[in-house]
Amino acid sequence: QLQLVESGGGLVQPGGSLRLSCAASGFTLGYYAIGWFRQAPGKEREGVSCISSSDSTTYYADSVKGRFSISRDNAKNTVYLQMNSLKPEETAVYYCAAEWGDISTVQDMCVKHSYDYWGPGTQVTVSS
Questions:
Q1: Which end of the chain is more exposed for a tag (fewer CB within 10 A), N or C?
Q2: CA–CA distance from 42 to each of 36, 91, 93, 110 (Å)?
Q3: N-term to C-term CA, the chain
Q4: In this predicted structure, what is the pLDDT of residue 59?
């Protein structure tokens, strides 16, 4: 059974850092395109960062460019999202998602949320 589980969320002060992990079981993440998304209360889910399956091309939303970094460790079957200089408005539930192969460009997949498999999410709270 394909399963994704996020971890690494928590409470952090503004300007702080967190590293989220997305661990897969039941399938090999290296063959999948992966995306990180977030949803704040009362807001729509948005794509934060995505990475392609073929060549690990990355995409970042404008709001996180230069502060967030997505990476994969195929040996650990895990994808990471390093988040630096966090802001209070980035408080949200963060989700990872997976899709077999690259059905379109990494940007297109990220913007359109074109992923079939989703984790339950991890809460990130940025507050002093």
A1: N
A2: 19, 12, 12, 21
A3: 40
A4: 97
Instruction: Check pLDDT > 90 for residue 84.
Output: yes
Closest CA to 91 of 102, 79, 83: 83
Residue 125 Cα distances to 66, 77, 86, 88, 117, angstroms:
20, 26, 9, 7, 24
Instruction: State phi, psi for 99 to the nearest 5 degrees.
Output: -140, 135
Span 3-32, pLDDT tens digits: 999 999 999 999 999 999 999 999 999 899
Distance, CA of 125 to CA of 64 (rounded, Å) = 16
Half-sphere exposure of 12 (CA within 13 A, CB side): 22
CA distances from 90 to 51, 67, 84, 109 (A): 20, 12, 11, 21
CA–CA dist 54, 85 (Å, integer) = 30
Amino acid at 106: V
**Residue 2: is its pLDDT beyond 90?**
no
- Could you give the CA distance from residue 63 to residue 31 in angstroms, rounded to a whole number? 28
> What is the share, in percent, of the chain residues with pLDDT greater than 90?
90
